[in-house]
C-alpha cells in the first residue's frame, strides 16, 4: 500500500487529521488497532474549547455537536463549603466551552470518514515505523491476520501514549519530561440529570471531586482516590456518600443520586516528549504528551497538533516551502507547555496530596480565595480553560 500521509491511530487526533487532509486534497490511510465499537465507546474527555468547536465545524463534523452539545459559559469552584462561579464570556471577551463527549466526536468523524474519506482500517495494528529519517518512511502493520507495509511520504503517530510511533525516534534525540501524581480519578457515569448546570470543581480536605455531565440526563462524576485504587473497591453507596461530602455547601444545594452505569479509575500523569518530529515522522496528541485531566486539555491539544500539521503540509504543497513543517515541533510545544502548566496548576490547586501539610492546605485555600476576589487571577483561569490559540 502507498499513500501520502500514513496515520497511526483513530482517536480524535488521527480521525480529525484524516478529515483535514482530505479537505485539502491530500490522501491518507488511517490504521487503527481496535475495532469500531471499541473506539466509539471508550469513555474519556468531554470538554471542547472554542478553537476545537470551530475546527470540527469547519471540517463538517459539527452538525450533531451543535444540536446535542451543551454550551457552558462558566465553571464553579467549591471550597470551604462556599461556591464561586467563573464567568468565561465576561472574562475572555465572549469565549465559552462545549460539553460534547469524545465518544460522540469520534462517532461523527468515523461516520464522515467511512462515507467519503480516505481508507480507515480497523483492527489494523501498526507494528513499527521504519526509515523515518528518509524520504520514504514506512509503517509495518498487521491486518486480517497478515503483515503488510504502508509506504508513505509522511507518517503521523496519533497512536496515544502506549503506541509504537514514538519508539521510532532514537533515544539519542529524545528528551522526556514527566511527573506522576500519587492519586487518580475514580470516574462514574450515572443515569441521573446533572445536579448543577455547569461543571463543579471541589477542593475538600478529603480530596478533590468533579461534577460533570455527558447530556441533560447523564452525569459524569469523579473522586480523587489513592494511586493504584481498584474501582471495584468502591460500592455505589460509598461513591455517592463520598461525593456528597466533598460537594457539601452551606446553602441548600443537593447532589441527586442515580444508577451508576460505569466506573473506572484514571491515573494522573504529566508527560512531554521532545521533539514532536523526527525526519518524516510527526507525533500528535497523546503520542507526544499527556496532561492530568483537571484542565480538560488532552483532547483539545490533540486537535491543535493535527491542525498545525495539516496547515503546514498544505502550505508546503502550495508554496514549496517546508518552513512550517520544519517548525511543527516548536510550534506545537509552545501550546503544549502552556497546557501542561495550566493542568499542573489546576491539579495542585484542587487535589490533596497524601502528605499535604497544614501549611499547604492553607496555601490552596489562599490561591482559591485569590481567584474568587481578583479579576486578574480569575481572568487567567478563564483564558486558559477556554483555550490557547493554535499558532
Ligand atoms: C481513561 C482516560 C480518561 C480521560 N479523561 C479525560 C478527560 O476527562 N478530559 C480530557 O480533556 N482528557 C481526558 N483524557 C485524555 C484524552 O482523552 C486524550 O488526550 C485524547 O484521547 C487524545 O487523543 P489522541 O487521538 O491523541 O489519542 P487516543 O484517543 O489515545 O487515540 C489513539 C488511538 O491509537 C490507537 N492505537 C494505539 N496503538 C496503535 C497501534 N500500534 N496501531 C494502530 N492503532 C493504535 C488506539 O487504539 C487509539 O484508538 C482521558 C484519557 C484517558 C486514557
Automatic annotation (TrEMBL):
<dbReference type="Pfam" id="PF01494">
    <property type="entry name" value="FAD_binding_3"/>
</dbReference>
<protein>
    <submittedName>
        <fullName>4-hydroxybenzoate 3-monooxygenase</fullName>
    </submittedName>
</protein>
<dbReference type="GO" id="GO:0071949">
    <property type="term" value="F:FAD binding"/>
</dbReference>
<dbReference type="GO" id="GO:0016709">
    <property type="term" value="F:oxidoreductase activity, acting on paired donors, with incorporation or reduction of molecular oxygen, NAD(P)H as one donor, and incorporation of one atom of oxygen"/>
</dbReference>
<keyword id="KW-0274">FAD</keyword>
<keyword id="KW-0560">Oxidoreductase</keyword>
<feature type="domain" description="FAD-binding">
    <location>
        <begin position="2"/>
        <end position="343"/>
    </location>
</feature>
<keyword id="KW-0503">Monooxygenase</keyword>
<dbReference type="InterPro" id="IPR002938">
    <property type="entry name" value="FAD-bd"/>
</dbReference>
<dbReference type="InterPro" id="IPR050641">
    <property type="entry name" value="RIFMO-like"/>
</dbReference>
<dbReference type="InterPro" id="IPR036188">
    <property type="entry name" value="FAD/NAD-bd_sf"/>
</dbReference>
<keyword id="KW-0285">Flavoprotein</keyword>
Amino acid at each position: 500500500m502507498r499513500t501520502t500521509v500514513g496515520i497511526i491511530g483513530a482517536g480524535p487526533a488521527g480521525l480529525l487529521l484524516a478529515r483535514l487532509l482530505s479537505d485539502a486534497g491530500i490522501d491518507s490511510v488511517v490504521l487503527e488497532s481496535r475495532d469500531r465499537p471499541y473506539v466509539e465507546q471508550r469513555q474519556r474527555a468531554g470538554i471542547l474549547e472554542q478553537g476545537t468547536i470551530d475546527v470540527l465545524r469547519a471540517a463538517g463534523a459539527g452538525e450533531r455537536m451543535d444540536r446535542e452539545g451543551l454550551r457552558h459559559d462558566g465553571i464553579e469552584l467549591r471550597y470551604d463549603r462556599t461556591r464561586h462561579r467563573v464567568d468565561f464570556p465576561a472574562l475572555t471577551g465572549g469565549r465559552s466551552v462545549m460539553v460534547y463527549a469524545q465518544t460522540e466526536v469520534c462517532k461523527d468523524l468515523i461516520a464522515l470518514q467511512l462515507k467519503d474519506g480516505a481508507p480507515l482500517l480497523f483492527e489494523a495494528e501498526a507494528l513499527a515505523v521504519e526509515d523515518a529519517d528518509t524520504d520514504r518512511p514506512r509503517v509495518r502493520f498487521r491486518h486480517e491476520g497478515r503483515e503488510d507495509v504502508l509506504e508513505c511520504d509522511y507518517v503521523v503517530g496519533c497512536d496515544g501514549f502506549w503506541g509504537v510511533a514514538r519508539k521510532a525516534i532514537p533515544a539519542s534525540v529524545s528528551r522526556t519530561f514527566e511527573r506522576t501524581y500519587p492519586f487518580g480519578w475514580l470516574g462514574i457515569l450515572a443515569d441521573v440529570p446533572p445536579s448543577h448546570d455547569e461543571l463543579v470543581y471541589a477542593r475538600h480536605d478529603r480530596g478533590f471531586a468533579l461534577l460533570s455531565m455527558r447530556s441533560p440526563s447523564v452525569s459524569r462524576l469523579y473522586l480523587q482516590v489513592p494511586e493504584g485504587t481498584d474501582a471495584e473497591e468502591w460500592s455505589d453507596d460509598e461513591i455517592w456518600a463520598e461525593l456528597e461530602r466533598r460537594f457539601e455547601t452551606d446553602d441548600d444545594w443537593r447532589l441527586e443520586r442515580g444508577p451508576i452505569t460505569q466506573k473506572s479509575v484514571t491515573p494522573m500523569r504529566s508527560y512531554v516528549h521532545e521533539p514532536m518530529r523526527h525526519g518524516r515522522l510527526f507525533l500528535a496528541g497523546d503520542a507526544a504528551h499527556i496532561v492530568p485531566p483537571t484542565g480538560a486539555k488532552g483532547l483539545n491539544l490533540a486537535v491543535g497538533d493535527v491542525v498545525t500539521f495539516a496547515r503546514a503540509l498544505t502550505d508546503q504543497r502550495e508554496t514549496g516551502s517546508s518552513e512550517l513543517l520544519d517548525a511543527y515541533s516548536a510550534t506545537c510545544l509552545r501550546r503544549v507547555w502552556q497546557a501542561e502548566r495550566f493542568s499542573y496548576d489546576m491539579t495542585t490547586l484542587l487535589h490533596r496530596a497524601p502528605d499535604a501539610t497544614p501549611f499547604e492546605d492553607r496555601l490552596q485555600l489562599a490561591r482559591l480565595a485569590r481567584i474568587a476576589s481578583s479579576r486578574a487571577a480569575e481572568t487567567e483561569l478563564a483564558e486558559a480553560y477556554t483555550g490557547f490559540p493554535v499558532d
